[in-house]
Amino acid sequence: AQNVFHFKLVLLGDASVGKSCLVVRFAKGEFYEYQEPTIGAAFMTQTVNLNSEVVKYEIWDTAGQERYKSLVPMYYRGAAAAVIVYDITSKESFDAAKGWVSELQGTNTLIALAGNKVDLEASRVVEREAVRAYAEQMGVLFMETSAKSGQNVQELFREIAVRLPKD
Ligand code: GTP
Ligand code: MG
C-alpha cells in the first residue's frame, strides 16, 4: 500500500511570469498563449507518484498584479512549499522573486525558484549561473522551466515532492 501525503503549495511572483501556465501545464498538460491574468487566486490539485509515496498537492496560484498584493500572505501562510516564479526575460521579475525569497526565508516553507519562459532564450536577460549561485547561497531549489514547451515542469514539482518532509 502507498502512503498518501497532502501538501499545500503556493505559486508567487510578478504578473505575467507564467505562474498559471506552469500550474496548467503541470495539472493538465496544456498551454494557452492567451492565459487570463489571475484574479485573487486560483485553486487546483495534482498528484505526484513517487516510488512508495503519493504526494497530493493542493495548489494556490496567486495573482501577481499589484492590486492583489495584500492578499498574498493569506495564501502562503502554512504552505509546505512555495514556487517563486520569475521570467528569464525580465530582470524586474527576478528582483521581485528575490523579495519573495527573503519574505519566506526562515519559515517552514520549502522554497523553489523557477526561472520560467526558458524557451525565449534569445531574449534572456537573467543569467542562469548567477541565479544558480544565488539559490545555492539562499538554500533554495532552482530550476529553469518553460510552461510553453513543458521543459522541467514535471521535474520541478517532482523534485519538490521528493524533498518535502514526510512523517
Ligand atoms: P498573473 O496571474 O497576472 O499573476 O500572471 P501569471 O504569472 O499567472 O502569468 P500567466 O500564466 O497568465 O502567463 C502570462 C503570459 O505569459 C501568457 O500570455 C502566457 O502564454 C505566457 N507564458 C507563460 N509561460 C510561458 C512560457 O514558458 N514561455 C512563453 N514563451 N510564454 C509563456
Ligand atoms: Mg495567473
From TrEMBL:
Domain of life assignment: Eukaryota
GO MF annotations in UniProt: GTP binding; GTPase activity
Keyword Nucleotide-binding: yes
Coiled coil: none
UniProt entry keywords in alphabetical sequence: Nucleotide-binding
Protein name listed in UniProt: Ras-related protein Rab-5C
Organism for this UniProt entry: Cladocopium goreaui
Residue span relative to the full protein: 5 to 171 of 200
